[in-house]
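Support case: user asked for a sample of complex input and structure output to validate their parser. Sending the pair below.
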Amino acid sequence: MDFSIPPRVEPIVRRVRAFVDEALIPLEPRFLNGSFRSLLPVLAELRAQVKAAGLWAPHLPQAYGGLGLSLTEFAHVSEELGRSPLGHYVFNCQAPDVGNMELLMHYGTEAQKRTYLEPLARGEIRSCFAMTEPEYPGSNPVLMGTTAVKDGDDYVLNGHKWFATGADGAHFAIVMAVTNPEAEDRHRRASQIIVPCDTPGFTLVRNISIMGEPGSDHASHGEIRLENCRVPQENRLGAEGEGFRLAQIRLGPGRIHHCMRWIGICERAFDLMCTRAASRKMSSSAWLADQQAVQHWIAESRAAIDGARLLVLHAAWKMEQEGAYAARVEISTIKFVVANVLQQVLDRAIQVHGALGMTDDTPLAYWYRHERAGRIYDGPDEVHKWVVARHVLGKYRDAGAA
Amino acid sequence: MDFSIPPRVEPIVRRVRAFVDEALIPLEPRFLNGSFRSLLPVLAELRAQVKAAGLWAPHLPQAYGGLGLSLTEFAHVSEELGRSPLGHYVFNCQAPDVGNMELLMHYGTEAQKRTYLEPLARGEIRSCFAMTEPEYPGSNPVLMGTTAVKDGDDYVLNGHKWFATGADGAHFAIVMAVTNPEAEDRHRRASQIIVPCDTPGFTLVRNISIMGEPGSDHASHGEIRLENCRVPQENRLGAEGEGFRLAQIRLGPGRIHHCMRWIGICERAFDLMCTRAASRKMSSSAWLADQQAVQHWIAESRAAIDGARLLVLHAAWKMEQEGAYAARVEISTIKFVVANVLQQVLDRAIQVHGALGMTDDTPLAYWYRHERAGRIYDGPDEVHKWVVARHVLGKYRDAGAA
Amino acid sequence: MDFSIPPRVEPIVRRVRAFVDEALIPLEPRFLNGSFRSLLPVLAELRAQVKAAGLWAPHLPQAYGGLGLSLTEFAHVSEELGRSPLGHYVFNCQAPDVGNMELLMHYGTEAQKRTYLEPLARGEIRSCFAMTEPEYPGSNPVLMGTTAVKDGDDYVLNGHKWFATGADGAHFAIVMAVTNPEAEDRHRRASQIIVPCDTPGFTLVRNISIMGEPGSDHASHGEIRLENCRVPQENRLGAEGEGFRLAQIRLGPGRIHHCMRWIGICERAFDLMCTRAASRKMSSSAWLADQQAVQHWIAESRAAIDGARLLVLHAAWKMEQEGAYAARVEISTIKFVVANVLQQVLDRAIQVHGALGMTDDTPLAYWYRHERAGRIYDGPDEVHKWVVARHVLGKYRDAGAA
Amino acid sequence: MDFSIPPRVEPIVRRVRAFVDEALIPLEPRFLNGSFRSLLPVLAELRAQVKAAGLWAPHLPQAYGGLGLSLTEFAHVSEELGRSPLGHYVFNCQAPDVGNMELLMHYGTEAQKRTYLEPLARGEIRSCFAMTEPEYPGSNPVLMGTTAVKDGDDYVLNGHKWFATGADGAHFAIVMAVTNPEAEDRHRRASQIIVPCDTPGFTLVRNISIMGEPGSDHASHGEIRLENCRVPQENRLGAEGEGFRLAQIRLGPGRIHHCMRWIGICERAFDLMCTRAASRKMSSSAWLADQQAVQHWIAESRAAIDGARLLVLHAAWKMEQEGAYAARVEISTIKFVVANVLQQVLDRAIQVHGALGMTDDTPLAYWYRHERAGRIYDGPDEVHKWVVARHVLGKYRDAGAA
C-alpha cells in the first residue's frame, strides 16, 4: 500500500501546473466571454509552446509524439489540465479526440493510422464521435436508427445523430451505424465507420444550443444528418458488428479520463471558493471565511474531493493491473460519484461567490452549466448505479439467496 | 381553516393559464434561441392582447389599470404566469418593475406618480433598481459606496452598481445611495433616488454576462457607473435616510412574488418531467416512467412543490392579515425553501430529459442556469436562515435560557 | 383561503398543552428509564383526571364519551399530545386502539360495539391489530399466510403475526385472515375477525425486542401464533372478504393520525433543541446558539415542520371535504414527508445535545430509535412514493403520452 | 502508487474473518437480547481461543503478546473485527483499553507498565478513560471542572465525569483533571492520572441509560463521581500539565481505530442488506433486489464505503509516514466522513429489512442506536469540519488574502 505520487510524474505535474497558471488561466476571460473559434490562433500558439516544452499529448505513446504516461500517471497530469477549461485542448488530450486516438491506435489499419491518427496526434486536425441519437435513449445502446448498407465496395449511411462533440470544424467523424441488423446478438449489429466530414450527405445541421450557447469549433456539440452518405468499406474501424465492443473499450478509459478532469475542475473551484472566502469582507471585522456554513462547505468539499480522487486513482490502478473489463464496476462507481461531487462543489463555490458566481467573470458558471451533463453523458448516474448493484447483487443471487 | 382557491380568482386563473399555454409557450423557442430584444414587437402585441382581455397587471389596483387582486389572490395567477419565462413580462408584473410600482404607489409624490408610475403601469416604459454593488456584500446592506451629495436643489450621485435587472432599455433607475453618511443609525444613511437613465453621468457599463449570456433589454442585468450624475432632489423617493426602510418594504412582498413565480416554474418543470417520463421509451416495452428512480423523483417533487406552495400561500395570507413586518420570518422561510425546491425540481427534470435537458430545446436549461441566482439575490439562503433562527432563538434567550 | 386555527379548538388545545406540560412531561423520566407496566397505576390516575377535565378521547363522538372533534380539529390537539410519548395513551387516542375504535364504530354490529367498542372508548380495555406477518412483505397485502376456515358456526384461525402493537395486555385482537382463498380478486380473500386474547390457541410468543427493548403492555409489539384458534363467525368485522377494504379504510385516517402525532414530536424535539442551544455555553462568551450550523438546523427544521404541518392539515381538510379515497394521494404524500422530517429533526436535536442526546435523560433517544419505524410501518416510504407517482403519471399516460 | 493489501496481512485477515464468522456472529443473538455481563464466561473462552490461535491483540507489539501490526496493516484486521459488535473485545483491541494501552506503552513508567499495561495486554483486567464532563462541552477541552490537588505525595481528586466507556467492571480509570489551574497556556492545565476503581471516593454513579439500555460491564458508559479521591502522585501519566497533549496523542490513532471499525460495521450492514434484498420476495416473481431504489442504495453504499475505506487507509498511511500531527487534518476528515457514511448505510440496511430491521433479530438496530454517537464522541462532526476548514483556509489567509 503506497499512496505517493510516482516520482517520474512529479516534475511533469509541476511544469503542467505552471503552464496552466501562467498561460491558460489568464486566457479564460476571453474564452468565457467570446467564441472558441476566435481563440484558435492564440490556442495554436500555445499548442506549439506545449510541444516545444516537451509536454505534448501526455497520454500518447512516445512513438506518436506523446509522453507515454500510464493511466495512473496521466491521472495526475489530467487533474492539472482540468483546472482550466482550455487545458486538455491545448495539450491535445481533449475528448472526443483522445478516445478516437485510442480506437485508431488499437483497431485502426495502417492506412487509417496514417490518414487519421497521425495528424490527430500532431494536433493538425480534429475529429468527432457520432453515436447518440435523439430518437433513442443513449442508456440503451442496442436501440439505434442509423444504418450503413453495403453497396459495392462502399457503405451508404443514413441516420440522425446528435451530441457529437466538436463536430463543428472536425475533419472526420467516427459513426456508429447498424451494419448487421439481422445479427442474433443485438450487441453485434453495429459497426464503427470513419466518415470524413466533407463527404456528400454528411450535414452538420446545427451546433446544438446547450445551456444558452451553441458554441463553436471544438467547444460545441453537433446535430448531424447522414443522407446517403457513401464511404469505402475500408473506412470501417475493426471487424463488422464490433461497434459496441469498440464503444465499450473506448468508454472505459474515457470515463476515467472524464473523472480525472473533473477532479481538476473540483480543485480549481475549491481554490476559487477558498480564495473568495478568505478575501471577501462581510463587515469591517469579519470575512466570509469566518462563517461556519462556509467552513463546513470547505471541509465537506475537501473530504469529498479527496475521497473521489482516491477512488479514481484506484480504478485507474485496477484497470492497469487487471484490464478494463475487471475494472468496469470501479469505473461505473467513479462515473457517478465524481460527477456528483463536481456538481456539489461547483454549487457551493458559486454560493460563496454570491452574485459574482453567477457571472462569467469566473469559470464557475461555465462549469456549472456545462458539467451538469457529466451526470448524463457516457451513461447517466442511474445506469452506472445499476451496473454496480447488478454486479454486487449477482454474487448474492448466485449464492442461492435468490 | 379553508384551503380552497378564492372563487373570484378561479376564472382569472383559468384564462391566464390558457393564454400562457396558447400564446406564450409556443413563443419560447424563439426566446430561448434568440435575443429578448428581437422579441419586443411580438411581445408588444401580446401585451395589447392581455390588456384587451382584461387581464393586465393583475397585481395593480384597478385605478392603475390592474385587476386589483390581493396578494393571496395574485399568488394563484403568478404561479400560472411563472410557467413560462415570458409570463410576468407580458402581463406587466415582472421584477423589478413590480417592486418599483409598489414603491412609487406608496411613497411617490403626485409628480413622481404621474411621471414614472403611470407609464410603468401602462407598460410604456420599463425601470430598474440599482442597489447591489460589486465591492460590497449584498448581505450586509449598511455597506454601500454610492453617494448622493446635495448641491443646490440637486443630488450629485457617484458610485458603482451591478445586477440592476433590465437596466438595458430602462427609462429610469431607482438608485440606493448614501445621503446621510453621518447618521448614527447605520440603517438611516441611505436614500432611494429616481435617476432617469439618460441623465449625463449615468452609464450602463455592460450587460453582465451571466451563465453564458449577457442578454438584452428586460432579460439582462446591468453594471452601472454613476459619475457626477445630477438629478433634482425632488427625485428622492420618500424621506431622507429612508432608503433601507423602503428597500425592506419593497423586498418583503418582492420575495413573496419571486416565490410565487418559482412555484409556477416548478409546476412547468414537473409537467415537462412527467410528460417526458410517460412518453420516452427505454426499450420496446418499458417507459422512462416505469423506472422507480423516476417515480421517486416525481413523488418527492410533487410533495416538495405542494409543501412549498402552502408555505407561500400561508406567508402571503399572514402578510395580508398582519402586515409585512409580522410576516418577515415566514417570508425568509419561503425565500430559502422555495429557491431550493426549485433548484432540485429543475435538476431532476433535466436528468429525466437526459441529453435533451441540457439543450435549449426546452426551457429547463434556461431556468437551471438563471434561477440558480434565486438562492443568492434578495438575500442568500444563509441570511434568511439566520433571520429565522434569530427570531426563534430570541424567544429562548429572552426566556432567560441564555 | 384561511389558515387560522378553528376558534372552538383553541381553548381545548391550550388546556391539553398545559396538561401535557404539567402532568406528562414530568413523568417522562420514569417512562424512559422504567417499564410501561410499572406506570400503569399512575397512568390510570391521569386518565381519570383527563376524563374529569372533559378532555377524554378528543377524536370520539360525544355519544361515546369523546369530544367529537373533526379530523382537522383533532389535528391540533393530536400535535399537542404528541409532544410527550405518553400523550395519546393518557387521552385514550393511542394507536392501534384509535383505529380499532373507528372500525368498530363504522362496521361493528351492535353486539360488537357493546362488547368491544364501549369498554375501549371508556379506556377499560385495550386491543391490538394483527395484520403483518414475518414471512410476507407488508408492502404487498395480498400475500398472507394466516387462514380462517369455517367450521360450524365458528372460524378456526391458524397463522403467524408480528408487530401487533400493544398485544401484551390487550383484551382482544382484530386479526386479518384469509377466509376466501378462492376469490378471483386477490383483494377480496381476507376478512377481519375479532379474537379475544384469551382464546385457546392464541399465543403471544414474545414482545419483540425492538431497538434494544422488548417493552411491555401498551408500549410493546407482539409476535403472535394462532393455532386452531376458534371464534364464532359473528366475530367477523364487516362482510366476508372485506378485510382489505376495511384495512384501507382504517389506514387512511390512521396515517393522518400518525402524521399529526409526529408533528407534535417534531415540535417537542425542536423545543428541546432550541432550549439546549440557548442555554449551553461553549466558552465563557459563546453559546451553542451562536453557531451558524446550529442556527441553520433550527431554521431548516422550523421550515420543514411548518411545511409538513400545512401538508397534514391540507390532507385532513381534503379528507373531510371529499372522503378518504379522494385524499389518498395527499395521505401517501404526508406519510413519507412527515416521517422523514421527523427523523431529520430528531437527528439534529440529538446532535445539538451532544452526548446528552444519546442518553435517556431526554425523550430524544427514545423517539430516535422507535420512530425510525415511521418510515416502515403503515407502508414504507417507497410504497407511498409509488402511490403518488402512479397517480401523477396516470394522468400523463392516459393523455396518450404512453 | 499501490493499492494492494500487504501480503503478510492477508492470511491474518482471512483467519480473523473466519473466526468472526464461525465464533462471534453465532453469538450475537445472545449479545443483542441479553446482558454483556452474562456473556463474560463464553467471551473468556473465546479470548483463550484467539490467544491459542496466535491472533491476540493484533495492534500490540510482540513484546506485549500482540501481532505487532502496523497501523495500515491493523486497519484490514480491524475492519474484519468490526463486522461483529463482539470482535474487538474478543481480540483485546477494544476501546477504550486500546487507547489506554498506547498511552501506558509510550508514557507509562516501568512501574505503571508492570501494574497496569501488562495485565491489560493479557486481557486480565479492563480500564476506562474519564475525560468528558456533563457540565462542560466536550468540544472545548479547556473547560474542565475536575481537579487534582497535591497533598503530600498524593493527588486528591474531585470532580464529575461521564461517558467513561466500560467503567462498570474496570480495574482502573485514567482521569483527566486540572492540576495546574494557574498555567497561562490553558492547554497545559490538566494532567492524566491513573485512579484504581476501588479507590475510596471513586464512585460509579450509574451506567448511563443510552438509547434505551444502561448496558453492563464493557458494554456500558459510566457516570463517575470523584470525591476526595486520593492516589499517589506517581500515578500521574506523563509530565504535569501534559494531559491535553496526551489526550491528543491518544485521540489521533483512536479516531483512526474507530473509523477502521466503522468500515467493518458498514461492510456487515451492506452484506445484510444485500442478503436480504436477494432473498426477500415481494411477489411471486419479484425480489426486493429488483427494486431500483434498493439497487441505488446498494450502489451508493458500495461507493461510499469504498471511498471511505481509501480515505481511512490513506490517513493511516500518512500517519505512519509523517506522524500523527502531520495527519491531523486527514484524521479529522475521516472522523466525520466515515461516521456519516456509517449512519447512512445502517439507515438504508434497516429500510431494506423493513420491520425486521427495527428488531434485535439482526445487529442493525444495535448499531443504528449506538453508533449514532460516532458523530458526537471524540469530537463532533462540527469540530472536525472546523479543523479541516481552518487548516485549508489558513493557507489562503497567510497568502495575504485576508
